[in-house]
Design brief:
Blueprint: E1 5-11, E2 28-29, E3 32-33, H1 34-42, E4 49-54, H2 58-64, E5 72-74, H3 81-95, E6 99-104, H4 112-125, E7 129-135, E8 144-147, E9 153-157, E10 173-182, H5 183-186, H6 206-213, E11 218-222, H7 235-256, E12 259-261, E13 266-268, E14 273-274, E15 279-281, E16 284-287, E17 291-292, E18 297-298, E19 302-305, E20 308-309, E21 313-314, E22 319-321, E23 324-325, E24 330-331, E25 336-337, E26 342-343, E27 348-356, E28 359-360, E29 365-373, E30 375-377, E31 382-383, E32 388-390, E33 400-402, E34 407-408, E35 413-415, E36 418-420, E37 425-426, E38 431-432, E39 441-442
Parallel strand pairs: 1-4, 1-6, 4-5, 7-11, 12-15, 13-16, 14-17, 15-18, 16-19, 17-20, 18-21, 19-22, 20-23, 21-24, 22-25, 23-26, 24-27, 25-27, 26-28, 27-29, 28-30, 29-31, 30-33, 31-34, 32-35, 33-36, 34-37, 35-38, 37-39
Antiparallel strand pairs: 2-3, 6-10, 7-10, 8-9
Binding site for UDP-N-acetyl-alpha-D-glucosamine: 10-13, 24, 75, 80-81, 143, 158, 175, 233, 338, 356, 371, 382
Organism: Desulfomicrobium norvegicum (strain DSM 1741 / NCIMB 8310) (Desulfovibrio baculatus (strain Norway 4))
Family: In the N-terminal section; belongs to the N-acetylglucosamine-1-phosphate uridyltransferase family. In the C-terminal section; belongs to the transferase hexapeptide repeat family.
Length: 460
C-alpha cells in the first residue's frame, strides 16, 4: 500500500519582481491564474489533501478559488518558506498523511508522477526528506545541490554563497523547489529552523542540514534539464511561459484538425475544447471553459470566454462571455454577448448590438445598434435598429418578453416589465410602457404636426 501524500502550496508572496499590485499566484496565463494550474494538476491525484499558504492580499486569492474554501492557511508575516510550512503543520499532522509535498504556487507545472517516484525513493532510502533536482547548463541564480559520498543530498548552497573553487568546480545540479517530507520524523525537527540569515527568514532548505544532523538521509531525484519546474518571477518569465504553452495548445489543435489561420496571434486557454472542423482566424482570444463545435467559424479580433459555440459564425471584433451561440446563428461584427445569453438557431445579432442575460429564439434578428437586456425574444422576431430594452428602474431589473413573429420598429424603447404579443407590430420611435396584445399595432409616440412658419427663411 502506497503511503498517503498531502500537499502544501506556497502562495503567500507578493512577487516584487513582477511589479504588480496583484499577488503573483494570480497572474494570468492564457486567461487562468498561475495557482489554478497547480490546483488542476492535483485534481488528478486521488483523494489528495491540499493546503495553500496565503499572505499578500489573501482574501483576493481565496475569493478566486472558492472550491478550496477551508483549506487556506494565513501567513500574516511573510517570514520565509520554512515559516509557511511551520504554520501548516498542525493541519498536516492532524490529517494522518505519511508524506508531505511542498510546492510553489508560482510554478504551474506539477510533476505528479515524479513526486510519486520521489516518495518511493524516500521510503527506499529511509530518508527524512527528499527533493527534485534540475541539471542546468547555466545554473546561475539557483541554489546548488551538494551530495555526499553516498549520493544523498548534503546541503543546498544558495547562489550568493556559492564558490566553485570550494566545490571542485561548477555544480550544475540545482534545487527545483519541490520537496517531500516524512511527516512523522520531520515534524519535531521544524523547530530547529532559525532566522540567522541576511533576509531574517526561515528557509525550508535549512531542513536538509537539520535532517542530516539528525541522521536522516535526504534523497535527491534528478528531474532532468526541463524548464517546467522553473518558477515564474518576472513579467518576462510570465510571457515566455504563456507563449510556450500557447504554442503547445495551438500545435495540438492543428494536429487534431482545427483550422487556425494567422495562428501565431491566436490565444486559446488550456480548458478550452475546440472540435476538428472548426475554423478560427487570428488575432483571437478564447478562454475559460469554452467549447467550440465543428463547423464554427470565428473571425479575427474576437474575445470569447466560458461560452459554447455551435456551428455558427462569429464576425470580427465580437465579444462573447458566458453564453451559448447555436447552430446557424451569427454574431457581429462588433457584437457583444454578455453572460447568461442564448442565441438560438439561425438567429442574428448584428453590428453594435449588445445582448445581456437574454434569449433570442430561432430566427430572431437584431441587426443594428440595439441593447437587449433581461429579455426573451421569440422565434422570428425582428428588432429594428436603435431598439432599447429599458430593464432597470434604478432599484430592480425587469424582463421584457417579445413573442413569436413580432416586429419592433426602429428607435423603440421597451420599458420593462412589458410583453409584446405574437405577431404584434410596434411603430418606429415608440416608447412602450404597457403590454401589446397579439396582432396589435402599437403606436406610442406624439402625433406629428406640420405648422406654417412665420419666417420662411432662416436667414431673414
Amino acid at each position: 500500500m502506497k503511503p498517503e501524500l498531502g500537499y502544501v502550496i506556497l502562495a503567500a508572496g507578493k512577487g516584487t519582481r513582477m511589479h504588480s499590485d496583484s499577488p503573483k499566484v494570480l497572474q494570468q496565463v492564457l486567461g487562468k491564474p498561475l495557482l489554478g494550474y497547480v490546483y488542476d494538476a492535483l485534481t488528478h491525484v486521488p483523494a489528495a489533501q491540499v493546503w495553500t499558504v496565503v499572505g499578500f492580499q489573501s482574501a483576493k486569492v481565496e475569493d478566486c478559488f472558492p472550491g478550496q474554501k477551508g483549506q487556506f492557511v494565513l501567513q500574516e508575516q511573510q517570514l520565509g518558506t520554512g515559516h509557511a510550512v511551520i504554520l501548516s503543520w498542525e493541519r498536516v499532522a492532524a490529517s494522518g498523511i505519511s508524506y508531505l509535498c511542498v510546492l510553489n504556487g508560482d510554478t504551474p507545472h506539477v510533476p505528479v508522477d515524479a513526486i510519486a517516484d520521489l516518495v518511493e525513493l524516500c521510503a527506499a532510502q529511509n530518508a527524512g526528506m527528499g527533493m527534485l533536482t534540475l541539471r542546468l547548463e547555466n545554473p546561475f541564480g539557483y541554489g546548488r545541490v551538494i551530495r555526499n559520498a553516498e549520493g544523498c543530498v548534503e546541503r543546498v548552497v544558495e547562489e550568493k554563497d556559492f564558490c566553485a573553487a570550494d566545490h571542485g568546480g561548477e555544480v550544475f545540479e540545482v534545487n527545483s523547489g519541490v520537496y517531500v517530507f516524512d511527516v512523522m520524523r520531520c515534524g519535531p525537527l521544524l523547530e530547529k529552523m532559525d532566522r540567522n540569515n541576511a533576509q531574517q527568514e526561515y528557509y525550508l532548505t535549512q531542513m536538509i542540514a537539520i535532517c542530516a544532523a539528525a541522521g536522516l538521509p535526504v534523497a535527491g531525484l534528478p528531474f532532468g534539464s526541463s524548464d517546467l519546474l522553473r518558477g515564474i518571477n518576472s513579467p518576462r518569465e510570465l510571457v515566455r511561459f504563456e507563449d510556450s504553452l500557447r504554442r503547445q495548445i495551438v500545435e495540438g489543435l492543428l494536429d487534431s484538425g482545427v483550422i487556425l489561420r494567422n495562428c501565431e496571434t491566436i490565444f486559446i486557454g488550456p480548458d478550452v475544447a475546440v472540435a476538428p472542423g472548426a475554423e478560427i482566424m487570428g488575432p483571437c482570444e478564447i478562454y475559460g471553459c469554452s467549447r467550440i463545435e465543428r463547423g464554427a467559424f470565428i473571425s479575427s479580433h474576437c474575445w470569447i470566454k466560458d461560452s459554447i459555440l455551435g456551428p455558427c459564425q462569429v464576425k470580427s471584433f465580437s465579444h462573447i462571455e458566458g453564453s451559448h451561440i447555436r447552430a446557424g446563428a451569427s454574431v457581429g461584427p462588433y457584437g457583444r454577448i454578455r453572460p447568461g445569453s442564448d442565441i438560438g438557431e439561425d438567429a442574428r445579432v448584428g453590428n453594435f448590438v449588445e445582448v445581456k442575460k437574454s434569449v433570442l429564439h430561432a430566427g430572431a434578428k437584431a441587426g443594428h445598434l440595439s441593447y437587449l437586456g433581461d429579455s426573451d425574444i421569440g422565434p422570428g422576431v425582428n428588432i429594428g435598429a436603435g431598439t432599447i430594452t429599458c430593464n432597470y428602474d434604478g432599484a430592480k431589473k425587469h424582463r421584457t418578453e417579445i413573442h413569436e413573429n413580432a416586429f419592433i420598429g426602429s428607435n423603440t424603447a421597451l420599458v420593462a416589465p412589458v410583453v409584446v404579443g405574437v405577431g404584434a407590430l410596434v411603430a418606429a420611435g415608440s416608447v412602450v410602457t404597457k403590454n401589446v396584445p397579439d396582432g396589435a399595432l402599437c403606436v406610442a409616440r406624439a402625433r406629428q404636426s406640420n405648422l406654417d412658419r412665420k419666417k420662411k427663411s432662416l436667414q431673414s
